[in-house]
Structure formats: structure tokens, C-alpha cells
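Support case: user asked for a sample of complex input and structure output to validate their parser. Sending the pair below.
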Amino acid sequence: DTAVSQTPKYLVTQMGNDKSIKCEQNLGHDTMYWYKQDSKKFLKIMFSYNNKELIINETVPNRFSPKSPDKAHLNLHINSLELGDSAVYFCATAWTGGSEQFFGPGTRLTVL
Amino acid sequence: DQQVKQNSPSLSVQEGRISILNCDYTNSMFDYFLWYKKYPAEGPTFLISISSIKDKNEDGRFTVFLNKSAKHLSLHIVPSQPGDSAVYFCAASPGTYKYIFGTGTRLKVLA
């Protein structure tokens, strides 16, 4: 029973398209995150939601729009995809005030 | 500006010996530090953490040491096992919801 799941696992698309990545967790955590791991393997935080409320937005272009329909889901929608958006995107969850985060398996996005 | 740095991109160690992975940080506001392990095609998995009020935390074969004056932490794995071969990330938090990760060190444990 997967704790943090992401769909799809792989996503290949053309420049200019709009795509979404979904994240679901069954841990009951109240905080969810999106991270981007680029070609240099640098794992960088993009967004954080606590109880469906946006609490961190790390200077991410507004082409990226996270949506949290409920506490168990945090989806990432990307408009007008660019070549530089190619990366692995990880969803993560945690308890408020907790230490460790639990990561999903990642979604490898390739923009052609 | 990279606030958390892992200057060794890779490390090879013989099975049974000690593995020492290092991490340096620049922000003195960080008060919580974590180590994650990552296998290919999987997400990072939490390994061990340490609060800034401590200088050592131990969990089985894994020990994390924190030197606040040097802004340096290290992860010791002893004895190293082939299954420990993975990429190890250190991460730091200033006490908010935010975590800043290093670029990782690839550990290879040779049988």
C-alpha cells in the first residue's frame, strides 16, 4: 500500500503544451510539497501546502500552479511547457512540526 | 547561492569499512538537519536527523555528527554494506516548513 503516490511516472510532451502531475498520500499528513530535481541533481523545493493552504512558493514561474483539492492530494499543473521544465518532480508529505518528509517515487518530465 | 553543499559527488568504500559522508551549510539559522537515501527511480527515503541542540545522533549503523561552529555535519555508516549503495542527500531546515537539500553524494560499497 503506497504511502505517497504520483502519476504519471513518466511524461513526455511537446513545448507549449499544458500538463498535470498528480500526488496522493494516505499517511494523513497535513503538509505536502513539490520538489524539482534538475539535471544537476539539485533537489529544490517549489511549493508547500499545509491543510490545503499555500505556505511556500519559491519563486516558481506562474506557469506552475499547484492545486490541493483536499488534504490527501496536491496536484501540479504546468502551462506552456518549456525545455527547461524537463526534470524529475517529487511530491513529499510531512506532519507540521515533524522532522522527516516522505517522498513519492517521482515523475520524470521530458519536454521536447 | 547554495546554502547546503555536499562537495564530494561520489565515494567508494569497501564492504565492512566505515563510510563518511560530509555536508557543509552556510546559514546559521538552520536548526534541524536530515539525511536521506535515494535509490535510482525512487524518491528519497528519510534516514536520520539531528537537532541543532545536539552534536550526535545514532541509529543502528548510522550516526550523524553536527559541528555547529564549523557549520558541518557528517553521516557515518559502519559497517558499510552493499545495500547501502545509493545517493545520500543532506537537508537543512530553519525551523519552518522549508527544507534545503544538498546535491547528493553517490556512495558505492564494494563487496
